[in-house]
Design brief:
Layout (H helix, E strand, L loop, with lengths): L1 H10 L4 H10 L3 H9 L11 H15 L3 H15 L6 E8 L2 E8 L3 E7 L8 H9 L4 E6 L4 H4 L8 E5 L5 E5 L10 H5 L4 H12 L7 H12 L4 H16 L4 H7 L5 H6 L4 H12 L3
Helix pairs in contact: 2-14, 9-10
Length: 284
């Protein structure tokens, strides 16, 4: 149990508040001490905070595959190994009655639901069915030994990826494209006010000014008249626009591989990103 407790404590270093604090303060002493106190270390005399994070992440990858390990593997795959890297990646997004773990928007949309060895599959059917209502492609990402067990729970259109021991992703089953099944009402509820208003204006013309109490219902009636293709295009436009960041790719490339999911997930200003990189480059 002490070993497992140490891994759990190590996993808590890979969180948004810790990463955000690096950007705000530029001081990695607290998280460095946390990792070292739980047996994480690097033997090289040239070790930095970044190499300590990488070493700790490798321990998690091999001994304690928590949800962050899966999210980070996806972040690395999408940003640096996908055939066509997406224009935008969102970590955790509300969809119908669920929250998708990772959503990607590029040539098309894709949703990724993670089920680790520690997760219950109780809501897996509901979750993946929710994502099929809004995304072109939906994937389950899980442990190699769990793929066969989970597949009967999910729609045949859902693709299956497994996280291998080297941190790579293996496609067990391809996802079936499903833009024609996208539901406009589900997409509408994922959009911000100006996003669904702009979409309605494009397809139905400029609308009259309305009081706030009447505005949503008016636009809802018009938005749900869109085709699945039009609704999906609205989703793509909205999320690509939201996530556009000309400097993000460079920032992710300078981060250690172990922290790229946090690079996607944590909003940081340019000075905060510089402080993060400086703190990670500091020697131990």
């Amino acid at each position: 149990m002490p070993f497992l407790d140490g891994l759990r404590a190590t996993a808590r270093a890979f969180t948004r508040p810790i990463f955000k604090a690096l950007g705000v303060t530029g001081d990695a002493s607290a998280v460095t001490g946390q990792l070292l106190s739980h047996g994480m270390g690097v033997s090289s005399s040239a070790a930095t905070v970044a190499t300590l994070f990488d070493a700790a992440y490798q321990s998690l990858l091999h001994c304690y595959r928590c949800e962050f390990v899966y999210k980070n593997a996806l972040a690395n795959h999408l940003a640096f190994h996908a055939t066509a890297p997406p224009a935008g990646v969102v970590i955790e997004q509300h969809v119908a009655s669920s929250f998708v773990d990772v959503a990607a928007f590029g040539a098309t949309s894709a949703a990724y639901e993670i089920k680790t060895e520690f997760d219950s599959p109780k809501r897996l059917t509901t979750q993946t069915n929710d994502y099929l209502r809004a995304f072109d492609r939906v994937y389950l990402v899980t442990h190699p030994t769990l793929a066969a067990r989970h597949m009967p729970r999910i729609d045949a259109r859902v693709g299956v990826l497994t996280l291998e021991t080297d941190g790579s992703l293996n496609e067990v089953r391809a996802a079936t494209p499903g833009i024609s099944e996208v539901e406009p009402i589900t997409v509408l509820r994922m959009l911000r006010r100006h996003e669904y208003m702009d979409t309605v204006h494009v397809h139905h013309g400029v609308q009259p000014a309305l009081p706030n109490g009447l505005l949503y219902r008016h636009y809802e009636k018009l938005f749900v008249q869109l085709s699945s293709q039009q609704a999906h295009e609205a989703l793509m436009t909205a999320f690509v626009t939201r996530t556009q960041d000309g400097e993000l790719a460079d920032f992710l490339g300078e981060l250690p591989k172990s922290l790229r999911a946090l690079g996607f997930a944590t909003p940081l200003s340019r000075p905060q990103r510089r402080r993060v990189l400086k703190a990670l480059a500091a020697p131990l």
